[in-house]
Design a protein that fits this description.
eight-stranded mixed sheet; alpha/beta
Length: 387
């Protein structure tokens, strides 16, 4: 941490940050940007689209070196690649997109030394960027917003990259208190989609690992980035740089029209959400627009940008003891986390964003109203925001 940052923060916040200095690049004047790869199952839910856009629109904080995709629940990979490229385009970015794993870590690991294997493009890209020489000696952040397969495979294929990477994962349902008396018997889909990859990261003592708990209904989770449908309709139209138009056909085959900015895309996907709530869940059309939608995945880049918004706790890496052949709900699995406070392998958990809800939402809206983007290779024109 540089001297300018040290003088600016209060003593209580300093105590929080000192234990995680390696994670967070100082955001004082003249601070270096964080080199980052965004690894995402972006076709799954709207959280990922907003998280990627938030990261790209904070280019004064993040230097996005690329986007890697992974397939949710072993769906086909093409829709994830297509959606990632769509968001990159709508954010006027030139970040490359690389296709990642379809299957899980345990099924792929035996093939990683072949010239091609499931997820090889994403895995090789992570390895390449980890070894890339940076004039300032900056580490590479790999932020995973879905299953952690690509990163785990990269670390298996080339273990020497571990000290060069800082991993930030949005997964697990750790309780807010992190106390042994709390409920440690649940997990969540990002973890369970590939528990073998998650275990590999938790066990890798050379990898600096930061975990942002998920999902919203767990006390202390990240359920504070939650705009209402009406707020999206009122604020988002026209926000973002104006780019070459695209015709947006969503994953259900519905034509949502021609889009030229991320703000209009946000409106389109919230319109689909409203329609789904009314049609499939019986929501009252007169009140549905007041409903809030948790954009959980935005928590990961927001914590990286604003570490003071969350509470960080260093714990001994736990281990998940589950049912290996569980075929039930994709979001649940019988089992429990085995706590190991004396484990020399430490991980940092970031939670309780709800304590700073007003600051979190102010940062969220400011990012989309006033995006900071890198100069694209083709000219774009600014588009006025809707008041």
């Amino acid at each position: 941490m540089n001297n300018t940052m040290t003088m600016k923060i209060g003593s209580s916040l300093l105590l929080v940050l000192l234990c995680v200095i390696p994670m967070v690049a100082p955001q004082a004047s003249g601070a270096e940007r964080m080199r980052i790869i965004v690894d995402t199952d972006i076709e799954n839910e709207m959280d990922d689209q907003f998280a990627l856009a938030y990261t790209l629109f904070n280019s004064d904080v993040f230097e996005v070196e690329g986007v890697t995709t992974n397939s949710k629940h072993q769906w086909e990979v093409e829709p994830f690649e297509r959606e990632a490229k769509r968001i990159v385009h709508l954010c006027a970015s030139t970040a490359p997109v690389h296709v990642g794993a379809y299957m899980t870590y345990d099924r792929i690991k035996g093939d990683i030394h072949k010239s091609t294997f499931d997820g090889h493009a994403a895995v090789n890209f992570i390895i390449e960027r980890a070894h890339a020489k940076d004039p300032g000696g900056r580490p590479l952040y790999v932020m995973t917003l879905g299953k952690t397969t690509n990163l785990a495979l990269a670390l298996l294929k080339d273990p020497t990259i571990a000290p060069k990477i800082k991993a930030v994962t949005l997964m697990t349902r750790f309780p807010a208190s992190l106390e042994p008396s709390a409920n440690w018997t649940v997990s969540e889909s990002n973890h369970l989609d590939d528990r073998y990859a998650a275990a590999a990261l938790l066990e890798n003592a050379k990898l600096e690992l930061h975990i942002v708990p998920w999902p919203s209904h767990v006390p202390g989770g990240v359920n504070t980035i939650n705009p209402s449908i009406q707020e999206i309709y009122d604020i988002m139209p026209g926000l973002g740089p104006n780019v070459d138009p695209i015709v947006y056909i969503n994953k259900r085959g519905h034509n949502r029209g021609t889009l030229t900015c991320f703000g209009d895309f946000a409106v389109a996907i919230f319109e689909a959400l409203e329609h789904n709530l009314i049609t499939n869940y019986g929501a009252n059309p007169a009140t549905v627009r007041s409903r809030k939608r948790d954009l959980l995945d935005v928590a990961a880049p927001m914590v990286l940008k604003n570490p003071s918004y969350a509470v960080s706790t260093v714990i001994g890496a736990p281990r998940w003891d589950g049912t290996p052949d569980w075929t039930g709900s994709k979001n649940e699995e019988p089992g429990k986390w085995i706590l190991n406070p004396d484990n020399p392998r430490k991980v940092t958990v970031w939670n309780r964003l709800y304590h700073k809800h007003d600051l979190v939402m102010a940062d969220f809206w400011n990012t989309f109203r006033n995006p900071v983007i890198e100069s694209p290779t083709i000219p774009t024109t600014s588009r006025p925001a809707t008041p």
